[in-house]
Fold each of these.
Amino acid sequence: MKENSIYRTFDVEQWLDDTDFLQWVKHPGQELDAVFIPLLNERSEVSIKMRTAIDLLRNMDQTDHQLSDEEVAEMWENVSKRTLSRKRLLNHYSVEKKVFVSAAAVLLLAIVGTLLVVWKNNRQMDYFALAQQVMPNTIKDSKLIIPGKGSMTLSNRMQVVLGGDGKISLRSAQGEMVSLENTVSSGKEMGMLVVPAGKRASLLLADGTKIEVRPSSQVIFPVKFGQKKRELFIQGEAFFEVSKNKHWPFVVKTDKMNVEVLGTSFNVDAYSGNKEQSVVLVNGSVKVNTGGRNAIRIRPNQKYTFNENHQIETVEDVDVNPYTSWKEGYFLFESEKLNVVLEKLSSYYGMPFHYQAASIDDIRISGKLDLNNSLEVALKIISTTSPIEYQLGKSYVEINVRH
């Protein structure tokens, strides 16, 4: 057993490599409690590092699954066959595997009901079909799928950091950094970040681009970008701050749009099942191409929308704040239709709403909703400022208009 003075010098990786600490996290006992609980209860840097390590250990301490080479090959063939039809994949795999911490004090990762993705030369990637393998509404916590390593559960608001050398690290909400073992990329692998309702995560790419991923969303990305262009796929919503490089175009793909930029900040809304997808530009310049049409360039403070039902593209001037405020932790509404507000709450918290559309058609909402609050608190606030009442059930929310 080490002295307390030694433990006070530990960083997160050293905590993860300490045998006594690992034993205490799994099996607390009187002797070890006397050593670790006083440190954990301090309001100090050592406590923050301990809690980060505990969080990582508990997130990993699950029965997870590992795909065999045959399963990976079969999955790839399923995706390849659906490149044109883009039908949803039906196969889901579940094989269990334990997770361990290495002697080098970095993490070995296990699959958690997910997949490995390997880029194949000269094959067209069907991102949409691939995204159906791990949908946000099937998981409770954010998942990072790592090529060759599987996946791990992420703490809320954790950031995935991709290094220029192909290495992958994780930064906790408290700012602690942990490097993942043996994650050097050959330049061909694809990864996936899946964020369920009520959770947040972000990506910091090797080129300096930052992506804030909204709940109920997922991003498929190369661990290392190719030399000709930077390309990734999103299903859901995310805010991008793209590192500028006029010789290295950055392309965000959805199942309906291609958004090409050189360096800019913008929000992409492309949830699965929605008939409308949009791009809101904060600064810089982007070109949006939909369905083989000529690309449309939009300016800062403009919103591009594509309506699939009517095959119509529109561009309008907007205040960008209501579209981007979610990344700051709140929704901002200015005379917004109630059904739009409920749709945003539904996608964020993962709870469907039942209501008669005609009954709320004329109700509009203005104000600010703190997303750190629960759904019930948000509903209470809305019900005090509008003529509605709600019933919060286990699987849906019933909305009725007060008479």
Amino acid sequence: MELIQKGGLKNKIGLFFLFLSLISFSQNSPKQDFLLTAQGQTGYIISHHSSMMNLIKGHIFGVELNYVFHTDGSKPWQQIHGYPEIGISVLHMFLSNPEVLGKVEAVNPYLNFRLNKQRRKTSLNLRVGLGLAYITNPFNRITNHKNVVIGSHLNGFVNFRLNCTTPISTSWKLNYGVGLSHASNGSIKTPNLGLNMATINLGLAYIFGNKTITLKKDSIAPKKREWQTSVIGVVGMKEMEHPGGSKYFAFGLQGNFYRVLNYKNKIGGGIEFAYNEETKKIYTNDSIYNTTALDIIQSGVKISYAFTIDKLSLPIDFGVYIYKKQPTNGIFFHRIGLRYLITNHLIANVTLFTHFAKADYFEWGLGYQF
């Protein structure tokens, strides 16, 4: 409850960004023709840290309900991306050690991209989702001190799934596949090793409304290759490694450039600067002299890739520090997340800043695309 009270505004902003693209995609789409699916899941928690091994007691089990509708190509991006399905899922997951790890309740908007030809009876799909998860039993220094995985009730939730759909009648479909899910809070509240789950799923879908959808197939001109440049300012917050410690802000300024290859892909790079108050605290604890701004500022260069879906892009950055006096976290940094082009120039940014598999903090920001 403390986290929700302190971070209520931030959580609302995050939820707004997560659902913004779903609302945009839904416009002029055939919502009267939809699918409801129910799926069962089983799998295991991936032990990516030695301190987690004794917490994993067996397999995990889950139940998932989905509302799904198929795009019909009424917008160009739908045709470009092979008429993907748009869905939202509600997941209830029983973990292998509910007394310590709790349970997972997740709400997850997603896109389901078809990977094989439309004429195939069985569709092979890649599902990509980003939402929110509620962990019922996070770390508590008095009642649940053994949970070193998750330190907060509310967490970000990411899901990737390779799945197949096979019709078994005009109204019913069989769904099956394998998936990988991740839940963490970006170190807003520690501990935050993160929960990684590998699962297999099996379920049934029922079609409401029209059993078939007429797909529009317009002629779309190739995307003009061009350069895009932008500047984005971000702010984040994280807690020191010890649970219940002080929270510190981080500020960043990013300069990005991309070469647009086509409607889906762009590659590029950039330079960025950051000022992390937690770094200042660590540096002060380890030093015998007073620090200055030059001791705290970090700068780096990066190579970047972005997958684009209309006004939404999913950036991935691989960077190296070129100026960094404090040795914590090494010399490499990474980033993954969402950016949404609100207008022709204004960018909304929600990204996760990491050092390899270690999440550092969520970045919330605005930018300008030239």
Amino acid sequence: MEYLSILMKKMKDENSSGKHKGDGHRKRLRERFLDSGLSGFLDYEIIELLLTLGTPRKDCKQAAKDAIEKFRGLAGVLNSTINELQQVDGIGPSNAFGIKLFQAISERYSKEKIEFKTIFDSPKMIAEYLRGKIGRENKEYFITLFFDTRNNLIVHDISVGTLNASLVHPREVFSQAIVKNASHVVVAHNHPSGDATPSEADILTTKRLIEAGEIIGISVVDHIIVTKDGYCSLKEKGVIKNPKNNT
């Protein structure tokens, strides 16, 4: 009984001081990062560090290891939705905060890279932005990126639906482009199935948009299909040629 009393007192003291057994480990992780960045970090340690941002009093090591195993590596974890992450024991809405924050920062950074760089020869750069925007969604989204004559992203417009819906009709796409005074557009949609391969409908829709754009004088410079892990550019596949007025 004396031993039990001592143990209870120790636990009480630790709780009252706001500390737990993982505090020292977390401190060492953060000090390693501040000293040398992520050099020498194992994949699960990176996820563990992110999980600790939203978990003040819980050991995250095992959850991080389980997430790496379930999603087959660091990229798989970082590309997962919050609902997918919560399938891992020990990960909930609160401690998924750090990963969600990483995804949001990546999306913002990718958007700024698009806004300040010429992008016609870099579908990958646009795809990185789009993957953060709609790549992880479990519904199909269609998005149009509007650009001015200096290749600056003016704004984007997102609709929920499918490629067979009226929202992808050339009238809908180009009426917005005219209102926004866009010089050219990039259209894109996601494949929730995870397969970025274009369907026949994708290709036919792309050709229809290109023809309508040529009549109006607003070029469709690419159609990009994204998933959470990859992308397909119809420009890279040769479906879309370089517009004469933009080469």
